[in-house]
Design a protein that fits this description.
The strands form three sheets. The chain has a seven-stranded mixed barrel. It has helices spanning 12-20, 52-68, 95-98, 109-119, 146-149, 168-184, 214-222, 229-251, 278-281, 289-292, and strands at residues 6-10, 32-36, 73-79, 123-128, 132-134, 154-157, 160-163, 189-192, 201-202, 208-209, 256-259, 306-308. The chain contains ten helices and twelve strands. It is α/β, with parallel strands linked by helices. The longest helix is centred in the last third of the chain and has 23 residues, at 229-251. Helix 2 runs parallel beside helix 4 (109-119) and helix 6 (168-184) runs parallel beside helix 8 (229-251). It has one domain (6-308): TIM Barrel, CATH 3.20.20. It is globular, with a radius of gyration of 19 Å.
């Protein structure tokens, strides 16, 4: 996520065919996309001090490059840390756009990029970070930020602030943000990158630090819950993904829904698969078919069209 990444997205029919062991169908349409990251001013805007006209020119340049490369979609990060790269009454304007979180802004980058992309025949997927509430490259947060309004929903973990994925109010809040954008903007898709738990932090001795969701974990156990903590966490991650898919489709049945899971589900040394274990480290079960593949499952549990790898 430190530079623009060209995303290879798998069509739902193609993915289902691989998993079900069937012959591969012909793709109906290629999806050739580039990500535009706004967190820490990675891609846009390149500086917090740019004028509105300079911001517009950067977006136009990116779209023109995408058009020249024959790409047909951009994945534009609109919510890097419970803030907004668009006009919102729920969350404050992003510091990465204005230089100060919550500062009034006339220019609406999402509205602009949607209009200009569509002129060029390019789709726009709005990219949300559902749980990150603060990035260490930012300064102080505004009074209307979720960490100030509802500190009970926010957890400090390492140098970051995170919403607790196991809290029902967190899931409802992030869903409300996403549905607000889906209703008000002519976006073609909703996309997630870090839809899972944060990467594991370690203490000075190198020991893993547990994500601080103890309160909800104890409540779950006291209410008779029988899952282990890992399955309990993965269950909440999966439930959120499913709920978002169901609700955005109710608003816009044609909207695409995409996700970027970690590339390795679980290491399998005997098969030559090595690396970070997303299943136990991020509590992301990327093989859960009802979340990540539009297969032969009932429609109510099959939402995702695109997986970027």
């Amino acid at each position: 996520m430190r530079k623009k990444l060209l995303s290879l997205l798998l069509l739902p029919g193609l993915t289902a065919a691989v998993i079900n062991g069937r012959n591969l169908p012909e793709p109906q349409r290629e999806f050739r996309a580039v990500w535009i990251a706004t967190v820490d001013n990675i891609d846009f805007p390149t500086r917090k001090t740019l004028s509105v006209e300079e911001q517009k020119q950067e977006l136009l340049r990116d779209l023109d490059i995408a058009k020249r490369l024959r790409l047909n979609a951009v994945v534009f990060q609109v919510r890097p840390m419970c803030d907004a790269l668009y006009r919102s009454e729920i969350e404050p304007w992003s510091e990465f756009l204005t230089g100060e979180m919550g500062r009034s802004q006339v220019f609406d980058p999402l509205e602009f990029i949607v209009a200009e992309a569509h002129k060029r025949g390019i789709l726009v997927h709005a990219w949300f970070n559902p749980y990150r509430a603060y990035h260490p490259s930012a300064k102080t947060v505004s009074d209307n930020h979720i960490s100030k309004r509802r500190p009970d929903l926010v957890r400090k973990y390492g140098k970051y602030l995170w919403l607790d994925p196991t809290d029902p109010e967190v899931q409802e809040y992030s869903l409300r943000v996403i549905l607000d954008v889906t209703r008000r903007y002519d976006i073609d898709g909703v996309h997630f990158d870090d839809y899972f738990y944060p990467y594991i932090e370690k203490d000075a001795s190198g020991t893993d630090i547990e994500f601080p969701d103890d309160k909800n974990w104890r409540a779950y156990q006291q209410n008779g819950g029988r899952m282990n903590r890992g399955d309990w966490r993965r269950g909440h991650v999966n439930t959120f993904i499913e709920n978002v898919g169901r609700e955005i489709k109710r608003i816009k049945p044609q909207i695409m829904y995409g996700i970027s899971p970690f590339g390795i589900w679980q290491p399998m040394p005997e098969k030559g698969i090595e690396g970070f274990n997303a299943f136990t480290g991020l509590f992301a079960d990327s093989r859960t078919p009802e979340n990540f593949v539009k297969s032969q499952l009932p429609l109510a549990r099959s939402y995702l069209e695109t997986i970027s790898v």
